[in-house]
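Bug report (template v2)

What were you trying to do?
Predict the complex of my protein with magnesium ion.

What happened?
Run completed; filing so the output is reviewed.

Input:
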Amino acid sequence: MIDPLRARALLGQAELLYSETEVQAALQRLAQQLNSVFVDQHPLLLSVMGGAVVFTGQLLPLLNFPLDFDYVHVSRYGDGKLGGAMHWKVEPRENVRGRTVLVLDDILDEGHTLAALKQRVMALGAARFYSAVFADKQHGRIKPLQADFVGIDLPDRFVFGYGMDIEGAWRNLPAIYALPVIVALKER
Ligand code: IMP
Ligand code: MG
């Protein structure tokens, strides 16, 4: 667990990238898109824990079509800031068979997480795979897949808040912050 004083210091020096108001506006736009596409598809929504917890919890009540809900739990970052091996805590299961699956994740970074999820979900016999990510990191490198629905774009920096953690902390923030560039570089 991160030292609470360090957690407060990290937030204190962080840069606000998207305010709560801006996050909520993006969420509304995304919900409207999903509402127009999934009208009568009755998809199975798969939320990727833990980062998608806030996005999912705020998105679901804005959706006005029938849906089923389930989750997977995979972590790639652990508590560090560089993407490492993928660790599945809860894997996708047989209930995806024959379904239109819509995966919800907090952020599309290198894209390894969503690509692995797509491969597993399709191997289990899903009929269609869609993904909605709240944020898409713009790093200029090729991603193995693009998200079908995106809330906001983010610069290539380590971000936290709105479900995303820094050393395990601050998933609970309603806005999105980035570490100052100098600190981020020093810690890498
Ligand atoms: P990818 O496999 O590189 O696309 O990583 C995606 C996953 O890594 C997301 O589900 C996030 O949980 C996590 N992640 C990626 N970038 C960040 C970040 O800047 N801050 C916090 N978590 C991140
Ligand atoms: Mg995640």
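What did the reviewer find?
The pocket of inosinic acid (ligand 1) is lined by residues 48, 51, 76-77, 83, 105-113, 158-160, 164-165 (CB under 6 Å). Residues 161 and 170 are 6 Å apart (CA to CA).
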